Amino acid sequence: MFIPLHDANTLKHIKVQWVTLALMTLNIAVWLLTSLESEQAAQATTVGLGYIPAIAFGHAVLAQGLEIVPEPLTYLTYAFVHTGFWHLAGNMIFLWVFGDNVEDAMGHLRFLIFYLVCAAAGALCHGLLTMTSEAPLVGASGAVSGVVAAYVMLHPRVRVWVLVFFRVPLPLPAFVPLLLWIGQQFFMLAIAPDGDVSWGAHVGGILAGAFLILLLRRPGVPLFDREIVTPRAVRNDPGAGQAIAAGTDGRTAQRFPWGRR
């Protein structure tokens, strides 16, 4: 439906989104290493690190020599494996645009926990819907879906530049494209549960993200942009919020520290 390009949403509690950057780096590194392998080795990596419902629920056993990590860990490792450049790029663009502000609202450690739990929830939902499937699930979509759900609950009114239908750049309030995107995931799960895309993993990540943001956000961080949080550098200056400037009509007007009136 759309590709997010940029959001005008500065960080308020952290200086750098270290966890978001680390997750992106790890995803890209795994993809680069996999792309350098032979086709057979790459398939073995996908099977060994991917989440396979039939194995997770005891309907099948992985062939000897293919296991890379213990089966329970595949609830997490699958989220760092991608099958192609565009598969990787799509997930990383969403994580880059929206992950920093969700990390800012939680803090580094809580965001890491949040991301991994959303990934596991995506795998679990996919598995519950396709218990006998022997196809490996890979990709960060479940975790990234959780990030999208958390973002729209935190900042629905922030302007986001999106590329609609890969052609038209538009600045829209975040809730417009993101709620449409979330609705699409549920709709597609209802009409095409057995398609090539795991809509179940997306829905699992969305549900986990919407729930976890309630628990893991910093104390005082509001939901749904109900108030404007003053940046720390201004908040520490007791006189900054009282700056007065002349209005265009010659009268005095209060100038807020974030540049708006």
Automatic annotation (TrEMBL):
<dbReference type="InterPro" id="IPR022764">
    <property type="entry name" value="Peptidase_S54_rhomboid_dom"/>
</dbReference>
<feature type="domain" description="Peptidase S54 rhomboid">
    <location>
        <begin position="73"/>
        <end position="218"/>
    </location>
</feature>
<feature type="transmembrane region" description="Helical">
    <location>
        <begin position="161"/>
        <end position="182"/>
    </location>
</feature>
<dbReference type="InterPro" id="IPR035952">
    <property type="entry name" value="Rhomboid-like_sf"/>
</dbReference>
<feature type="transmembrane region" description="Helical">
    <location>
        <begin position="135"/>
        <end position="154"/>
    </location>
</feature>
<keyword id="KW-1003">Cell membrane</keyword>
<feature type="transmembrane region" description="Helical">
    <location>
        <begin position="111"/>
        <end position="129"/>
    </location>
</feature>
<feature type="transmembrane region" description="Helical">
    <location>
        <begin position="75"/>
        <end position="99"/>
    </location>
</feature>
<dbReference type="GO" id="GO:0016020">
    <property type="term" value="C:membrane"/>
</dbReference>
<feature type="transmembrane region" description="Helical">
    <location>
        <begin position="48"/>
        <end position="69"/>
    </location>
</feature>
<keyword id="KW-0378">Hydrolase</keyword>
<keyword id="KW-0997">Cell inner membrane</keyword>
<keyword id="KW-0812">Transmembrane</keyword>
<feature type="transmembrane region" description="Helical">
    <location>
        <begin position="197"/>
        <end position="216"/>
    </location>
</feature>
<keyword id="KW-0472">Membrane</keyword>
<keyword id="KW-1133">Transmembrane helix</keyword>
<feature type="transmembrane region" description="Helical">
    <location>
        <begin position="16"/>
        <end position="36"/>
    </location>
</feature>
<dbReference type="GO" id="GO:0004252">
    <property type="term" value="F:serine-type endopeptidase activity"/>
</dbReference>
<dbReference type="GO" id="GO:0006508">
    <property type="term" value="P:proteolysis"/>
</dbReference>
<protein>
    <submittedName>
        <fullName>Rhomboid family intramembrane serine protease</fullName>
    </submittedName>
</protein>
<keyword id="KW-0645">Protease</keyword>
<dbReference type="Pfam" id="PF01694">
    <property type="entry name" value="Rhomboid"/>
</dbReference>
